[in-house]
Amino acid sequence: MTLVVVLLAFVTVPMSISGAAVALPDIGEDLHAAGAPLQWVMNAYNLTFASFMLVAGSTADLVGRRRIFASGAAVFAVGSIAAAAASDIMLLDLARALSGIGAAGVFASGGAILATTFDGAERTRAFAALGSAAGLGLAAGPTLSGWLVSGMGWRATFGLHAVLVLVALAGVGFVAESRAPQRPRLNVSGAVVFVAGLGALVLGAVQGPEWGWASPGVLLLLAAGLALLVAFVVMQSRSAAPLLDLTLVRNRRFLALCMVPVVTTFGFVTLLTYLPTYLVGAGGFSAQRAGTVLLLMTAPVLLAPPLAGGLVNRGVSPRLLITLSLALFAAGNVWLTVIGPSTPVIVFAGPLLLVGLGAGLSFGVGDGMAMSLVEPEQAGMATGFLNTMRIGSEAIVIAVFGAVLVSLIGTRVDSPELAEKVAAGDLSGGVSGVLADGYTHALHVALYGTAAVCAVGAVIIGIALAPKRRETTPTAPAPGDSHVPAEVA
């Protein structure tokens, strides 16, 4: 029952990201909104989701992981209900921000609950199921949202998210409570500085494409965000009860595993976000057909995590699977440069399957391995930091990738305004063939760039995950050495 409750919530939270994107056109038409206010239906959720993750995880270790999970689920449900009832775009944006805070509580404590409930092979299987659940939510979100928007209107999308989480909340009584044995006071000043710093950094990245990367507002946000995060690190090094224990970050294997979702964002999430727009704009696909084609990339994400978990339990090295998954991202992104405006689906089906397999191999296995490297009393903190890297990188990398696409398209078209329209899938502002070729060129260059990032990431992370050399004679552990359970050693 613990696994069922956590998995149901982990299906819903990413579904609220991918599903809401499909509803944006109808939301804009119904609430008479466009541009930045409409985009903040997505941005507000991602901003608070990323910013509150670490705080939620560390708080869960202190006050109880089940308690934070239940509180997060309740806040998420209230935010989703408020979004479904919103009569104004600003109210909808605020509701989505509230949902993001709740999502942070669910994600940070959910992984910690599994890490403290299961051990050994059971833990590997549980985290493999968690990876499949998150992949299912991400993949099914656009399809379910499309059906609901067509049949019942966009409000039904947020209503579905609320219902699913409320069902999970009803089963929380079956989940055992756990917390750290020692419970110091929450580092409130550290929490405020971290939320403000990461929030400013993500906000600067999100607004960069709209305001201009060299605009004073964006530069101020980015500089303030970096300064506050540096101040946060200094504060944690001097705190007796830190929000983030810096020994976690000094553990090279744990830090390497936290970088896996960052590389995954480059190799997988950017395609999930921008490839449908290319297929509709340059390829002339309908939205429904583009979503169907995307199943080539999302289906392996549902099927591969249990396979990867089974391989780990049979003795295959998690390090090998994770390194292979990142290498598959690099290969798949390079191979995808065969795509063009009139390319048959069968030609680029291979790279989509390859990228999806790469994502499926690392989903769950990486998280499970990361959690096996930390002490149980730090499970919430570790999960919070891991997911902060995941969600924060998604918000920043997606914004930067979009800006790069617009800039590259701008080298082939007449104006920046036209480049933005083309990147959004609107090729009506000029000769469609010329615009489609410009869009294709930009996408190919961007794919080569993401492939390079994934290849370098695979090498660095593979090296960092190498186990420490065994001593030939028993020696006392060195100061600062992290605890490594038997199943990982």
From TrEMBL:
Membrane topology listed for this record: Multi-pass membrane protein
Alphabetically ordered keywords of this record: Antibiotic resistance, Membrane, Signal, Transmembrane, Transmembrane helix
Cleaved signal peptide residues: 1-23
Family matches, as Gene3D superfamilies: MFS general substrate transporter like domains, Multidrug resistance protein D
GO BP annotations listed: response to antibiotic
GO MF annotations in UniProt: transmembrane transporter activity
Transmembrane feature ranges: 39-56, 68-91, 97-115, 127-150, 156-176, 188-207, 213-234, 254-275, 287-308, 320-339, 345-370, 391-410, 445-466
Chain ranges of the Major facilitator superfamily (MFS) profile domain: 2-469
Top-level taxon: Bacteria
A Pfam family: MFS_1
SUPFAM superfamilies: MFS general substrate transporter
UniProt subcellular location: Cell membrane
Entry GO CC: plasma membrane
Protein name: MFS transporter
Lineage, opening ranks: Bacteria, Bacillati, Actinomycetota, Actinomycetes, Kitasatosporales
